[in-house]
Amino acid sequence: MKQGLLSLTALVAGLAMATSAQARDTRHLLSIEEAMDTPAAQEKLDPNIRFVFADTPHGSVAEQYGNFVTNKKTNAFNKSDEEACRWVMLSALLSLQDRVHAEGGNAVINIESFYDREPMVSRAEYECYAGMLMAGVALRGDVVTLR
């Protein structure tokens, strides 16, 4: 009985190591502009809300509501990494948009990628991690009302 249990334990441990060794988590830096110009983004993003990345000039702030983080994942199965990343980027932007609506603002400024709580600041690119089954984007930004 003990021998069978030890064999089963060894088999499970071996499978776990093999699975984790084959896991993929590829970092991509992709165009913010391309992600926001997709038909889905054009349809779903509120044109009255501004999304301002990094230190892009944005005008004066009338009111600040706080700094917020969104961390989204999407199914990447049977999609290219870029397709999955664009989809999950839209999901992250929609989450920030929902926060703007909830707080009563009209913009998110100082947006940066924030995957694994590590800031990556860029005016032109966002960070996405893609694997065989999942893709993820995390964003952090300040919800405000711009004059």
Description of the structure:
This protein has 147 residues and is of the alpha+beta class. It has one domain (24-146): Hypothetical protein apc22750. Chain B (Translation Initiation Factor IF3), CATH 3.30.110.70. 37% of the residues lie in helices and 35% in strands. The protein is built from four helices and six strands, in the order H-E-H-H-E-E-H-E-E-E. The chain has helices spanning 2-22, 32-36, 39-44, 81-103, and strands at 26-31, 50-53, 61-75, 107-113, 125-130, 134-146. Strands 1, 2, 3, 4, 5 and 6 form a six-stranded mixed β-sheet that branches. A hairpin with a 3-residue loop joins strand 5 (125-130) and strand 6 (134-146). Residues 10-22 have low confidence and may be disordered. Residues 1-23 form the signal peptide. Keywords: Signal. This is Excinuclease ATPase subunit.
